[in-house]
Specification:
- This protein is mostly helical and 284 residues long.
- Helices cover 72% and strands 0% of the residues.
- The chain has 12 helices and no strands.
- Helix 9 runs antiparallel to helix 10 (178-208).
- It is extended and about 105 Å long.
Length: 284
């Protein structure tokens, strides 16, 4: 079969174009209306901010300079006890200088991540104690926001030294019930995993939302429903994985390493703080 000449092809195309209706030949320009996605954007940013705290970032100190998690946890408990029971501002100033020195060793993102919740907790405690501050002239009332700031900051610095698995392994040394350790460990893992899934769902919803969406609650209900179904599926998979691996519900103690120079430094620091605390309290 011989091909048609070019002139005949153009004539056939012109005849077909003349037979098409006007509404079919009209070019369509779709311009979607403006809509607000503040709820999706704020939810996305909030989930991203929460996940950033659970991401396995490297510690701000090398492993050789970090004390063992059990020794650090004992030091943290002693420090929190001394901060709560102290009535001398000079001891709190000493602890603040120590914590700020440790804070200066970290990068800018971690400093802002630690200072912001500490300052918010201190301001919240100050707001609660505002009637007592106005009605009484006791200067010790002003120490409570300072203690709140120091306790939150010390806990944040401790959690920044080690990953969560080493912290949960150190908790088992204090004879905490295994069920409590299991709930804490699985909760931390599932917060991160389900947060990652919800971030992906919100990203997909935001990309597929074209024009105005008058049923935002229905869209978010779909995200929550899919997240619930996914969490149920993940819980079943974890249960079968535990059965296959022979998990009996107990966390074995990890082998404690020998004493390091960092542990000795931590012991000397705890002794010095305890001496300063007792010295100032006896002068009171």
């Amino acid at each position: 079969m011989l091909p048609l000449p070019f002139c005949k092809i153009k004539k056939i195309q012109g005849d077909i174009a003349m037979q098409l209706p006007d509404w079919l030949k009209k070019e369509e320009q779709y311009i979607p209306g403006k809509d607000r996605d503040y709820f999706i954007s704020r939810s996305f940013l909030r989930i991203t901010g929460i996940l950033a705290r659970y991401e396995s970032a490297p510690p701000f100190l090398p492993d050789k300079l970090c004390p063992s998690p059990m020794a650090a946890m004992l030091f943290l408990l002693l420090l929190l006890l001394l901060i709560v029971t102290s009535s001398q501002p000079y001891f709190l100033y000493t602890v603040a200088a120590l914590l700020l020195a440790l804070l200066a060793l970290q990068d800018g993102r971690r400093i802002s991540r630690l200072l912001l919740p500490s300052l918010l907790a201190a301001l919240f405690s100050l707001f609660i104690l505002l009637p007592a501050i106005l009605m009484t002239t006791n200067p010790l009332t002003l120490l409570l926001p300072v203690k709140t700031f120091l306790t939150v900051l010390a806990s944040g610095i401790f959690t920044g030294l080690y990953p969560w698995n080493r912290i949960t392994a150190a908790i088992s040394w204090f004879h905490v019930p295994q069920l409590a350790i299991f709930i804490l460990d699985t909760a931390l893992r599932y917060i991160y995993l389900l947060g990652s899934l919800s971030r992906e769902f919100l990203t997909a919803l935001q990309l597929r939302s074209i024009g105005q969406n008058r049923q935002k609650s229905r869209a978010m209900a779909g995200v929550v429903g899919n997240l619930f179904l996914k969490s149920q599926e993940m819980s079943q998979e974890m249960y079968h994985a535990m059965q296959c691996r022979g998990f009996t519900g107990t966390y074995p103690h990890s082998h404690q390493r020998a004493w390091q120079p960092a542990d000795i430094v931590l012991l000397l620091t705890a002794t010095a703080l305890l001496f300063i605390y007792l010295r100032l309290e006896m002068l009171l």
